[in-house]
Amino acid sequence: MKKERIILGIDPGTTVMGFGMIKVTGNQMSLILMDELILSKFDSHSLRLKKIFERTLSLIDEFHPDELAIEAPFFGKNVQSMLKLGRAQGVAMAAGLYREVAITEYLPKKVKKAITGNGNASKEQVAAMLKQLLNISVLPTKLDATDGLAVAVCHYFNAGKIGQKKSYGSWKNFISDNPKRVKE
């Protein structure tokens, strides 16, 4: 009997959060879903964060993923944008930790390299490769959904390999590994 697992991939954002989910049976991947959460319609940053948490939690409760892979914030020139992106990533991770789903972070270049072989690939190149890998008939017009899906596929390709960021299965593990990041 082949072991089956479900991987949820998230590309966090404060205007759009892309996500995708795959089922892995043996060494075969199949698409469960890919979509995006449009957040630009909400004026309040805190309301956007609440929506990210709620949507991530609802995906976990509906599909029961075994693992959550999330794209790590990239280092940009705009500090405010980076802070907002980090918060978006944090609340998605909090939802996973709340449901005790193992979480792994991947840098954007690592995701692109895993999918296309090129860490500097465009969103369009990543989407085209995902279309082939998962036999997707029609790609979405916005590529945030394929970005989220790419993180899930990257996790499948890198499962058990060294080089991705640390995984956490619970708040207790995170706190014990990061005592200086937690204030009392």
Overview of this structure, please?
By secondary structure, the protein is an alpha/beta fold. The chain has one domain (4-177): Ribonuclease H-like superfamily/Ribonuclease H (Nucleotidyltransferase, domain 5), CATH 3.30.420.10. Helix content is 44%, strand content 22%. Strands 3-2-1-4-5-6 form a 6-stranded mixed sheet. The chain is globular, with a radius of gyration of 16 Å.
Explain briefly what this protein structure is.
The protein has helices at 45-63, 79-98, 108-116, 123-133, 144-158, 171-177, and strands at residues 4-11, 16-25, 28-38, 67-71, 102-106, 167-168. With 184 residues, it is an alpha/beta fold.
Q: Record the strand order, biggest sheet.
A: 3-2-1-4-5-6
The CATH architecture is 2-Layer Sandwich
Helicity range: 40-55%
CATH topology: Nucleotidyltransferase, domain 5
Shape: globular
Question: Uncertain segments of ≥5 residues (pLDDT<50)?
Answer: 160-165
Q: Which CATH C-level class is it?
A: Alpha Beta
Task: Say which CATH homologous superfamily is assigned.
Answer: Ribonuclease H-like superfamily/Ribonuclease H
Q: What is the structural class? A: alpha/beta
Strand content: 15-25%
Number of domains: 1
Helix count from the secondary structure assignment = 6
How would a textbook summarize the main sheet? 6 strands, mixed
Radius of gyration: 16 Å
> What letter string, H or E per element, gives the SSE order?
EEEHEHEHHHEH
Count of beta strands: 6
- Gap between N and C termini, in Å? 47 Å
Query: Averaging pLDDT over every residue, what do you get?
Result: 88
